[in-house]
């Protein structure tokens, strides 16, 4: 059997267009997107993927209309409240990356609860990127290095790659093997900038709300046909 990627990252793009095509509110697209997430999580679990990191809310998403942000926040709260117990039963461990301090207390509390509930689980690691931006993550990592390890003193400061890695939100995760972006956009949009250095990228025209378990399998097949050299020969 060909190697299954250990870590898959996904940019769940196209919710808005999916809704617009149906004359629905954009929030309806996000709601349908949650359904796709459910299906993909199940498939990833079944396939024995170790880590699944999904881009749920970026540092740039705050610039969207207030009503859409509100709808996304409600959906997130509802999702965490409703799904965490079911995921716990499936031995899924919920983690997050990103700066959660910008979210409402209620959301922060629910996320903490979900993480605590599932922290000892040994199955799939479901990692949600929330108020996440690759540049912001690197900036925060350097800030932590300066503050924690140098007592705030920048004099003679040299920061190594390893040192940055140890302070990133993803410090406990391997780099993704495969990145999937749906909806035909071919950009990284500030996602996992550090971690994607040698990741195989798979882009699909399918809008995220239409993405199925079979689409996930197809993307993995494409990954399995790639020749990974990591810059070597
Ligand atoms: C991109 O589509 C998607 C988002 C900005 C949000 C993704 C969120 C979800 C799938 C649901 C919420 C997640 C959780 C974990 C509850 P877009 O709105 O940019 O689509 P468009 O490019 O077609 O406008």
Description:
- With 233 residues, the protein is of the alpha/beta class.
- The protein has a single domain (7-132, 175-224), classed as 3-Layer(aba) Sandwich (Undecaprenyl pyrophosphate synthetase), CATH 3.40.1180.
- Helices cover 44% and strands 15% of the residues.
- It is built from seven helices and six strands.
- The protein has helices at residues 15-21, 26-47, 66-89, 105-118, 134-149, 161-167, 213-224; strands at residues 7-11, 51-58, 93-97, 125-132, 178-181, 200-203.
- It is globular.
- The chain starts with 6 loop residues before the first strand and ends in a 9-residue tail after the last helix.
- The model has no long low-confidence stretch (mean pLDDT 94).
- The site of farnesyl diphosphate has 18 residues, from helix 1, helix 2 and helix 3.
Topology:
Blueprint: E1 7-11, H1 15-21, H2 26-47, E2 51-58, H3 66-89, E3 93-97, H4 105-118, E4 125-132, H5 134-149, H6 161-167, E5 178-181, E6 200-203, H7 213-224
Parallel strand pairs: 1-2, 1-5, 2-4, 3-4, 5-6
Helix pairs in contact: 1-2, 2-3, 3-4, 5-6
The structure holds farnesyl diphosphate.
The site of farnesyl diphosphate has 18 residues, from helix 1, helix 2 and helix 3.
In what order do the strands lie side by side in the largest sheet? 3-4-2-1-5-6
Ions, cofactors, ligands: which are bound? farnesyl diphosphate
Q: Could you tell me the number of beta strands?
A: 6
Order of helices and strands: EHHEHEHEHHEEH
CATH superfamily: Decaprenyl diphosphate synthase-like
